[in-house]
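Supplementary notes (optional reading)

For those who missed the lab, this is the record we used. Protein: 3',5'-cyclic-AMP phosphodiesterase. Length: 278 residues.
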Amino acid sequence: MSDIHNSVCELSVQVETIRIVQLTDTHLKTHDGGKLLGLDTDYSLQAVVDLANKEYPKPDFVLGTGDLADSGAGDAYRRLIGYFDQVSPEHFWLPGNHDLRDVMIEVGGAERVPGEIRVGAWQIVMLDSQLPGEVGGHLGRPELQRLEECLNAGAEAQLHTLICLHHQPVPIGCEWLDEQMVSDADSFFEILGRYPRVRGLLWGHVHQELDKYREDLRLLCTPSTCVQFLPGQQDFAVDTQAPGYRWLELDADGAIRTDVSRAVSQIFPVDREASGYL
Ligand SMILES: [Fe+2]
């Protein structure tokens, strides 16, 4: 495990409530204007960025929860910086199955891919659920050990915790996507069960919205800024819903307020007949 994985970014935000925009699964192609399932992912990301700036201006920072580039291209991450900078100069990334962590760090700098962010009364743990060469997610013993170390330190400092990762740690009800959920989720939840200050889990990957509870733990996933997947499906199916983002407000008492917003006023043509996606 490298030091980069363990890096802690401390942000000095002098506010009671931390305001965040999550942008996920941007899938930027190697070249500007490249398309995923018929959709120009630069165009849709710009539309979502414009929407976030209009509705939820000047957040404290942006969280990018994976599949930021569609094939790990350096130019995709360079363009990503330009888009995210329009929302906030502070943005943090974690890798999804389409990303290349080394390229993310090379282009964005190690400080953009931290192991943990400490801000006000909160710690935000950024987990790497990518298994190189695989579509599905896995945390593995070293990452789970790092999580536990973070949670111990956070509990000692009496911080509330939000955990971010790319893959879903619970089934979301799409059979084809749930084959890709975090394969060692049982070990993950066994650890979380010992840390009641963990308030929420936040992920991407499934290109659809979810907001529910597992006992007191808030479970949140967020639409992609490009193509959407139809909820409740056994096999791959594209949804016609618009791209979107999530805003989150983390209060000093541990409460989380959050919602999703979509760019419904624009048309985003998608190839609905597509039979697959990796
Ligand atoms: Fe994705």
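If you only remember one thing from this example: The chain is about 25% helix and 25% strand.
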